[in-house]
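Quick one - inputs below.
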Amino acid sequence: DAGVTQSPTHLIKTRGQQVTLRCSPKSGHDTVSWYQQALGQGPQFIFQYYEEEERQRGNFPDRFSGHQYPNYSSELNVNALLLGDSALYLCASSSLQLAKNIQYFGAGTRLSVL
Amino acid sequence: QKEVEQDPGPLSVPEGAIVSLNCTYSNSAFQYFMWYRQYSRKGPELLMYTYSSGNKEDGRFTAQVDKSSKYISLFIRDSQPSDSATYLCAMITSGGYQKVTFGIGTKLQVIP
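Output:
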């Protein structure tokens, strides 16, 4: 049973560029959440997708957007990259339909903005 | 004040010691309490979760939740060098859509 998979593992971009990160949830899970983890900090909630809609959003600007596909996979898009966007981006999946509140994380995508 | 407070450490202990990791929180709506282990530059790995108050044991790990004090703990018995990692406490309110609120993480080093 594959766990949560994220791609790519590492990405280098320059300021002003746009980036797309991808996530496939654990088998049986229907909900995907995205988090940003800066060095030495705990993960910060960006947003959550269920049934292809954004259901909750943390304190992140509109430059951060996402999408969920019918197969439950998800993308995180960040526009107009800033140096401060450099972080580990984590995807977590869970099952809202089964009322399973526990989230399982992928290995993350490390984004470096130069 | 942050919703979840956790001492970032670092915490250094000798191999075989009992480790105690703790978090306090302010939101009384939290119902699910988790501990994740995160190795350097990797994603968090779920160690244990507890619903509401009480204790839960899994091998060398014991999680405790005291909702009256808004205080949770993770104990690691017979600590091993492979336990060296950052330990994140995390919490969710019950029902609805699930935003996980994390502590900052405590960095643990177990010295052989």
